[in-house]
Amino acid sequence: MTTIAVETSDLGKRFGDFWAVKSATFSIKRGCVAVLAGPNGAGKTTTVRMLTTVLKPSKGYARIEGFDVVKDYLEVRKRIAYMPQDYGIPGDITPYEFIKYSLMMKGFSYFTARREAKKWIDLLGLRQVANRSGWVLSGGERRKMIVAATLASNADVIFLDEPTAGLDVESKYSVLRAIKEASKQTGSTILLTTHMLEEAQLIADQVVFVNSGVVVTTGTPRELLGKIPYKYKVILEAVDKKCLNGTKYIDLGDKIMVWTKSIDEARQITDECKSYNYSIRETTLEDVYLYIVGGEK
User: Fold this and answer.
1) Of 115, 173, 125, 114, nearest to 148 (Cα)?
2) Fold of 4-220
């Protein structure tokens, strides 16, 4: 039995003359939480729609649990659960009913569906609204309801397209916690998309960076952080760029950001630029992404 849950090779999708995805090559191990990360318009959603058999690839191939998404699409659909970015729900159904009926349509027994619905309602913090009509739920509550139903499916591979979009801070972290819990409890492989790289750093076992329709690199968060030769970044406000003496920087408008290899180098820059409004932070996956795709001047 293969240890790879998701595998793609030179996967691409063209709409007319426009390539939404130019070349996506990556693999995801079974049982891990993977994040497809990149800016808006990078091709994340189109990639997921090919992997879930919603769109037919224009080139390359993809396999889910060893099954080809084109030739074996019916087998793929038996093994996945998919939450689209723009998923809507009827307004006259409650979170409890929605999750319960979703599971029953997946083949769960009535009593198992009831039990699982209650469990995931608690895990997503929906107990107070579990029996309220969808008409009176907030957008965030409805989104958590959809996430709960998708995670509860116990599918081999679960796809979540921007699951935290539009959520407040507390709700966002409850969703991220539920995703990790689902992976741990069920062994499902979970692939989610996001443009928020701090989420990827918090939750991912594996990160796949996408830019302009191309997968540019992949690895664990630790492996990716090792691909940038810097450990710190300095953000300076209201300084003359000449003080940097040729050091590369990223222009943030009223601020500039400089990467450094040591804390001493960071402090030296603040001293030389005579900046009183500055911050020094450790590098993150955002810095890795910027470094790989460009952005320095």
Assistant:
1) 125
2) Rossmann fold (3.40.50)
